[in-house]
Amino acid sequence: MNSIFHRTSIREFTDQKVEKEKVELILKAAMAAPSSSNQQPWEFYITENKSTLLELSQCSPYAGCAKKAPMAFVICYREDVPYVECAPLDAAAATENMLLAIDSLGLASVWLSVAPFNERVDQVIKVLSLPNGIHPFAILPCGYPIKIIPQKNRYNPNKIHFLE
Fold it and tell me: With a threshold of 0.90, does the pTM exceed it?
């Protein structure tokens, strides 16, 4: 549970390259996520290309940090699954697993939402030349953090409601 209470959104990274072994572990964690009827609709695009990172950084007003990251994951989902309306939820579960894995490996990231914003979706499709039927969901710039920001305690008992 360490990473659950340690992970924060980090937007500044060192230039150190992320090792391929760590990238593979992050992707394994993503694919271990639950999905509706085990449909596993996810597709993952990974880039270290500076030009692509720059273009991805322009896909959202909040994505500027991607241009200086050593790499980024783009989480997508396919529409050719039985429960396509659940595919974004499945992608969200995979994304959270990735963020926890990233933290546990001494790396850092931030969840940059692409979906459900149509203009962001269209831009990412264009930047990555995604095939028809593949929908971008989120961008995770990833790298070694310049500094760690302590997580704030968000526990709020007023949001808990026990039912009889």
Answer: yes
Distance CA 110, CA 133 (A): 26
Phi and psi at 113, nearest 5°, equal: -70, 135
Cβ-proximal residues to 113 (8 Å cutoff; 6+ apart), any chain: 60, 62, 120, 138
pLDDT at residue 124 tops 90 = yes
Instruction: For residue range 133-163, list pLDDT tens digits in order.
Output: 999 999 999 999 999 889 999 999 999 999 9
Element (H, E) at 143: strand 134-143
**Rounded Cα–Cα distance for residues 90 and 77 (Å):** 8
Cα–Cα dist 163/144, whole Å: 44
